[in-house]
Protein 1
Amino acid sequence: MEHIRVSVVIATYNRAVMVVEAIQSALAQTRPPDEIVVADDASSDSTREELSRLASSHPNLRVCRRASNSGGIIVWNEAVAKTRGDFVAFCADDDRFLPGHLEGSLKYLEEHPEIGLVHSGFIDAIESGARVEFETRPLRSQVPLEINRGNLLRYMTRYYDWPFHPSTLVIRRELWERTGGFDRRYALADTDWFVRAAELAPAAMLPRHGVYNRRHPGNWSNRLGSARMQREIFEIVESLIERRYGRQSMGRGAWKAIWRANVRLHLGLTMIARLRSGHASAACAAWHGLLQDTGRRAPAAIERAGARLLRRLCARGQSDGLSPSESVVPL
């Protein structure tokens, strides 16, 4: 059988220690990658030196560096463009592959040529100082879960808070080329890409854990903020509904009603949970999304009044410092 080439792609910025661990987890795979392409988005810490040191002893590690910081999405597209594999596996610079991740993913893709991409479950590695706790996320299914054009809306409605873990994605190169790269309009460009790709070729969620998902105060999702993430995921799925139904007003109207009611329910439950734990910023972010980012806009005075009430209620509880395990989203 012809040798199938797989490329691992990692984009990094100012995470010298973490990116080395991510690369080492790729090198330690039971099915080693044919190449690892790391794109340094103009890091100002010791990332450059650490990557150079690793590359000198691993000929399958290629490092490309930008002269200026791109902000994230551009560097991922550039990194994928430099890969040569038949398959591309993504890994965030703060995550780590489990040893059998590539082998299990590639085996399924080779046995199911109709599947365009696979993703997997993950294990949280919750870091607090020198302490690390591991929490295994329950698998969604005991058999591979196929996502295709016919059930994509149902899947995104049910699992929109984390439809997939980006560091578990293994994709066929031709699907990347058909779908196009990440859309720079979105911070959640990987989610938009996943939706567009699943419209073109079926995806499969494998009943296995693929990565350690590091949860730490520097997580990208914490910096981005839950309000912006909520706005983007809402827009991504609304766009999917428009593409799916076009001018079919009945189907479009029904799915928008279902989707928006589901989002409002999730935001309401998130707000209550953050209120109970005393995290005012997260509670207010959910309140903002509920009023402004679900297809309707409430008067600003109502939002301000509600936010004041939430902050007063939270002040009676715990501090507002979000720990890595208390983020609104898992990534």
Note: The chain has twelve helices and ten strands.
Protein 2
Amino acid sequence: MSDVKEVLGKYSTEITKTIEDELSTIAPENLGEASIYLTRAGGKMLRPGLTLIVSEAVGGNRESALKSGAAIELIHTFSLIHDDIMDDDDMRRGMPSVHKVWGDDVAILAGDTLFSKAFEMIINSIDTTPEQNNKTLATVADACVKICEGQALDMGFEERFDVDEDEYMEMIFKKTGALIAAATKAGAIMGGASDDVVDVMYEYGRLIGLAFQIQDDYLDLASDEETLGKPIGSDIGKGKMTIIAIKGIASDDSGRLLEILKDDENSQEDIDEAIEILKECGAIEYARKLALDSVNQAKEILDILPDSSSKQVLLDIADFVLERNT
């Protein structure tokens, strides 16, 4: 099994350089600095890494997919900047968020700049055909619409406690999974894969994207504060509807869990009580199994690819989604 973080780190060097080159001409200076800020702050670079790895796994040249991968990272960064503004979050990747450093107006412009640059980069891809570029543009544009839909759904859930599992799965696919699926599909397109393989690679990305978000829900309750970097059960404290909360509400005949979730003033003792309820009714393990099932499906459909080191990395990344602790 490959060291996924090490592999992604190797790809991130190329991706970061490509992004730096593309954004180096942005003026005025404060807009350029705000635009590149989060890329320099680090991150897993999972999405662009997947684009390059998939392009190699389908028999293509990763140089052809490099600008598409970098573009997808710009889209991801654009979404983080705008999310932080909407949520008024102070920190991102261990640093003050963009809008806290440059203000809301410049942060919005930085996000818009990254969004626009992403499409320009795809158009200027190297050693690709116009058809490949157009298909990738359509794939990324579709993901952008889905991200907005997912964010709107998530906002709509804030005052609801009757969200069902199907609604939640739709939301996390659109908000989180869609861009990961676009990353893997773009890699297949730019790698010259057949339509059948392109479709399978989109499904692979969709499945690990779902698992990624469900694992986040799981870690909020099963990790520890030092590792996670935030208090355990913070989702409960916010009354957030996760797959675990949805399953727990449906299983808790006492109604106590719902009472805690609705309480804006809940204490740490209340949160600990809610966690015990979720453990006892099997909601936490249910989420873990759901994520595991998605990962196993993702690995199974990779049978369509010939054996290679890149295919093995894709298998390892699927496992990594569940093995990560942050």
Note: The domain at 4-323 is CATH 1.10.600.10 (Farnesyl Diphosphate Synthase).
Protein 3
Amino acid sequence: MEALTSFFIQLWGYSWIRALSTLILFVSISQIVHGSMKFYLQKIKKLQEGKTNEKIITKSDKPIAILIILTGLKISLRYLDYDLHLIQKILSSALIVIGIYLIIVAIDIIIDRWIYKFKKKAGGSYEDEGLNLIKNIINIFLGGIAIILVLNAWHVAIGPLLTSLGILGIAVGFAMQRTLSNIVGGVALVLDKCFRINDLVKLETGEVGRIAEVGLRSTKIVTVDNEMMIVPNSQLSNTMIINYAKPNNILRIKVPIAAAYGSDPDEVMKVVLDKVQKLKTVLPEPKPQARFTGMGDFSLDFELLFYIEDYKDRFTARTDVLKSVYKKMNKAGIKIPFPTRTLYLEQKEEVKKKRVRKK
């Protein structure tokens, strides 16, 4: 036994044996990892679950195996008493490239999963092209890091290059300032859950429309006149928005009503409420209300308030209420006023004297 141990110690003293053993060890590890990932991939395929895990394994299986083998090769070459700096640099460059590739794969899969969740929050419509642009920008950034690391492995001075890239980055940042603000605004709108696709909104400027699409740079709104309105996300995120679909679809409608002077305010409100409460389009709860709001130039002014179940029926409900109220007021003998004006004509004394002389 001691002779066998002595033999192995003596054998391990050879540099090429240590290098070969290390390489065989890392190759074995790579095969074990490759087999484990392949087994797990078949398992999740049978279960028809874990699409994200399936993508990760499919795209990273071989690169990880190669990464492990190259790492073992790099370590094993250190045991050899030869000048292998060139090969070491090549292996370092390959390891950097494969490592960055694996990071890019992981980020792409994470962003793809984020897109899926993002679409669900946005109501099912979101521009994939915009988010793919983000992926491309990240990939370019990581590719730049890979180039810098490879140059550093080859002992190339990267100070001037970093300075140039910094200046370029500042220039690009200024050039894309509005675009970036729109992107951030779009992300903020969706994460804040301000609205979903097909929600009816009213902007601070007065436009009313349905959310058609939430884009990376802008949001598309279809107005009630069937016109497409494109609003930059940075502007939309900094303005006041009324969402008729939140907190629910129930909507309160206000209808102004006028009665002639001389009408009994209590009778007017009673007649109006009795009729409105019988309409199917009006919700019984919360109860409709009638208010005496003031005495105008030629009329007594009232305001009728009632709730409907769905804001999409607001025009139909308003029309039904107005027709019913008009007919009921006519039947009850309540006069509906119209604008009147009294004109006073003043004649000057000279005009009066001339008329008297002519007579």
Note: The first strand starts at residue 200 and ends at 203.
Protein 4
Amino acid sequence: MTRSFKYSAIYLSCLTALVVARLIFGFVNLSENVSGWLFSTVMQCGFMGLMPFLMYRLPPRQRTSFSKAVGLRIPDLTVILLAVVAGIVMFLVNIVVSSLSNALWETLGYTSVNASGTIYSGIEVFILEAVTGAMMPAVFEEITHRGILSAALEENGVSDFGKVMIMGLFFGMAHQNITQLIPTFVVGIIISVLAVKTRSLIPGMIIHFLNNFLITLVNFSIQWGLPFAYVYAAVTNIMFISNVTLSLSLVGGLALMAVLVFEMCRIEKYSARRAKAENGESRYGDGIGFGGTEEKTSVKADTASVAMLIIGFLVCVGGTAFTLIWGLMR
């Protein structure tokens, strides 16, 4: 078994488990809150956490630990702080992107499901939503869609640009919801750039967590009438005054994100060179998608590995297409 085959097999297994879990939980007779928490826990911790870890330990055994292999390296403190700012900006950008995306699908005749959503009957519901809807996805989805997928692509000789585009597209399709496709693709592209260029998943995890957490906090604040709800309303009202302010919010937000991402990548590149000069070796080490030296050699793609990635992508496309067709027929 080649390394590229192994990494692709891990990723395909995660995607397949996601589809199977969605089908099973669709027939589970539980409240919407409990069903969502249970599904997220099983999917994130089990199929995107424990399963990749166990499969990684199967032969051929790797030289590095799983955490180091998937890029769980603590970056420079400045990068962490910039990632916090980027997470807040990403949340605001995502508001505009989601609004435009929903308008697009509605124009095409798509009808969304009128779900009741989470009912925040108490603070414990908010905590569970924050854990299962923000913290778990930020950790385990990044490990799967950035760490493991990056490894499979790198082992098949895909360029950095190719990895960013493919990981972004996979991330969007993997949610298997047509209304989430465009927003998750945008988030996926930005986080993938950070993962590839900083050689660490931590900045992306921070951005991913804050984006999801702030959405949860907004919904909780609105239902409980908390001050944050009024702050959110004031900011979004300004953003949506007119098409001009909407365009400025989107362009300005993306431009600010680009600056933040560039700065984080620059700092990490400088820190890596400094560490290499001081220690005489790369700070990154070998690992899934985050190993190797700065010098890249030509790598021949493994047919079986590529085939598994294509199958995984088609599975995600099928699920996403189903939600589109279902919405158009509704």
Note: Confidence is low (pLDDT under 50) at residues 283-288, 291-295.
